[in-house]
Amino acid sequence: ILDQWFESEPLKATLATDAVIGAMASPHTPGSGYVLLHHVMGELEGRRGAWGYVAGGMGALSQAIARAAAAQGVHIFAEKAVCHVLLGRDGRAQGVALQDGTEVRSKLVLSNASPQITFLELTPQEQLPKDFVQRIQQVDTRSPVTKINVAVDQLPSFLAAPNARDGRPLPHHQCSIHLNCEGTHLLHQAFTEAAHGHPSSRPMIELCIPSALDPGLAPRGCHVVSLFTQYTPAMLAGGQPWDEQARNAYADTVFDCIEAYAPGFKASVIGRDILTPPDLERIFGLPSGNIFHGGMSLDQLYFARPAPFYSGYRSPIPSLYLCGSGAHPGGGVMGAAGRNAARVALKDFRRL
Q1: pLDDT of residue 85
Q2: What is the reported pLDDT for 278?
Q3: Buried (b) or exposed (e) across 170-198, using 16+ Cβ within 10 A?
Q4: What are the residues whose beta carbons fall under 8 Å from the beta carbon of 32, sequence distance 6 or more?
Q5: Which is a Pfam family this sequence falls into (predicted)?
């Protein structure tokens, strides 16, 4: 697709990052063109294909949704882990049981958790068709992503566009900055290393500095830098664990790469938080660390997401719905799966 429209290799490689973002795939992998289109199909404030920052950080988006829900009378219980879905004698979902023993009864249950957690951990297996369970078990959840959050005491100054004397953010500081993307072959090489169980020696790096647009995210003169990096396998070669040594070794590789583009970056770092695929799974419940709850390959999209005959948000359990990234149309901060699931659930609710 990119070859049809562009000639510049650095431009093609930079755009190709959206074809492999969050995917254990190379730009040469068949079907990766869909992932590219998936990331530019939407719009922001009337601008097609545009992305933006959330004022106050990404958590502010969840807080805004929570406020809107609370205004409609919704009760929100934070830090209350769900133990399992409650089923009635007729096999219908009747609410959820919390780990502290509390039972929350309801006529409908919508799960924003991954299909794996929803159906393999929270739902009684004997109530699910065996072929459905097998399908959920076989979903490709491989993830190449390691997220690194960084605090710095000055803006990165890139050789290609040095900082202004007053230290104020320049236009490129307010955008996504793609590093190690001068050629598509670099992305393929990084993927190949991870496919053999080794973190990329020259990782694909998407660097954002949200505090350049939202100064409230960091103290005066300081900034927060978000690094979305690939490729890191969830399972390292030889069964080696993602321990502190492995984590820091990979982060050092990433920082060395950034240093080559922006000398002085490493000296400006005052703190970093490294989240490998196992960390993303443990903290956020993402299967294998996959930000989309499952690969966005063509065999796991549309009518096959999360499983054939169950792409319409309803599940084998009546009154239990899937509304997260594991449902159609897949991942992305857009809310499409949730909106569609809510409309289906509301339609069923009116029949009850």
Answers
A1: 97
A2: 96
A3: eeebeeebbbbbeebebbbbbbebbeeeb
A4: 16, 19, 20, 23, 25, 26
A5: Amino_oxidase
**Count of all residues that appear for the chain in the document:** 352
Angle 216-217-218 from CA coordinates, rounded to 5°: 95
Per-residue tokens: 293: 């709850």
pLDDT at 57: 87
Model confidence band, residue 41 (pLDDT cutoffs 50, 70, 90): confident
How far does the chain reach from its first CA to its final CA, in angstroms? 48
CB atoms within 10 A of CB 215: 14
pLDDT value at 118 more than 90: yes
Assessment of whether the complete model's pTM goes beyond 0.85: yes
Average pLDDT over residues 209-224: 93
Per-residue pLDDT for 334 more than 90?
Answer: no
3-state SS record for the chain: CHHHHCCCHHHHHHHHHHHHCCCCCCCCCCCHHHHHHHCCCCEECCEECCCCCCCCCCHHHHHHHHHHHHHCCCCCCCCCCEEEEEECCCCCEEEEEECCCCEEECCCEEECCCHHHHHHHCCCHHHCCHHHHHHHHCCCCCCCCEEEEEEECCCCCECCECCCCCCCCCHHHHCCEEECCCCHHHHHHHHHHHHCCCCCCCCEEEEECHHHCCHHHCCCCCEEEEEEEECCCCCCHHHCCCCHHHHHHHHHHHHHHHHHHCCCHHHHEEEEEEECHHHHHHHHCCHHHCCCCCCCCHHHCHHHCCCCCCCCCECCCCCEEECCCCCCCCCCCCCHHHHHHHHHHHHHHHHC
